[in-house]
Amino acid sequence: MPPIKEILFDCDNTLVLSESLAFEACAELANEILEAQGISDRFTGPQLLSTFVGQNFRGMMLGLQKMYNFELPENQLDDYVDRELGAVTKKLNEAAQPCEGVMEELEKLKGSGRYGLAVVSSSALPRVIASIKKTEMYHYFPSDHIFSAATSLEKPTSKPDPAIYLHACKVIGVQPGECVAVEDSRSGATAAKNAKIPLIGYVGSYLEDGKEKQESVAKMLKEECGAIVVMYHWSEFEECLKKVEVS
């Protein structure tokens, strides 16, 4: 395996505890769409999160249309995407918090100077920037090393499509095998796997859902998505990275 040059971090619930905040806003809009379609089902934020974790809002709404067999005109979908971005960004600016232990690890990585650091997210760029600014992570990531599947690509997409990872590698100037990705969800981990990027799974943000859920996700990340190692807390990151480098 070639030496690792770049660490590619997912943002939502990997660097920043943002998913529950974001999905509150997403659920309100999803329910508005369902009501307009004459569909009686409704989602809470946690239900929407469980169904669509790791996807951006456009990806969620495409999934919702498939699930309930209806189609939104493209301009209407774009309007909902814009509204969701504003609502979520406002919540993140007010209340986003870092995942436990991540700030210490980012500081160590920056101090070592051994690796480039980048954020590779499905979420829209303003949302990602709001998250990392509110949590004071912004100075760890060069502005041209923050990538969004919803914003950075010519054609917006969402993980598990590997396009955003491949785009990030091309812009940074590294091969996928010279990177390691850190992901917490099936969609994100699958995107890294399909881009042929070595993977560290992270399940620390699932602890509030109980140990059974946490272990279930850990098993999925390893067995289905090919994570080389899974970490339960950011304090384990240094040892996990060593295991990737010798694998």
From TrEMBL:
<keyword id="KW-0119">Carbohydrate metabolism</keyword>
<dbReference type="InterPro" id="IPR023198">
    <property type="entry name" value="PGP-like_dom2"/>
</dbReference>
<dbReference type="InterPro" id="IPR023214">
    <property type="entry name" value="HAD_sf"/>
</dbReference>
<dbReference type="InterPro" id="IPR006439">
    <property type="entry name" value="HAD-SF_hydro_IA"/>
</dbReference>
<protein>
    <submittedName>
        <fullName>Uncharacterized protein</fullName>
    </submittedName>
</protein>
<keyword id="KW-0479">Metal-binding</keyword>
<dbReference type="InterPro" id="IPR036412">
    <property type="entry name" value="HAD-like_sf"/>
</dbReference>
<dbReference type="Pfam" id="PF00702">
    <property type="entry name" value="Hydrolase"/>
</dbReference>
<keyword id="KW-0460">Magnesium</keyword>
<dbReference type="InterPro" id="IPR051600">
    <property type="entry name" value="Beta-PGM-like"/>
</dbReference>
<dbReference type="GO" id="GO:0046872">
    <property type="term" value="F:metal ion binding"/>
</dbReference>
<dbReference type="GO" id="GO:0016791">
    <property type="term" value="F:phosphatase activity"/>
</dbReference>
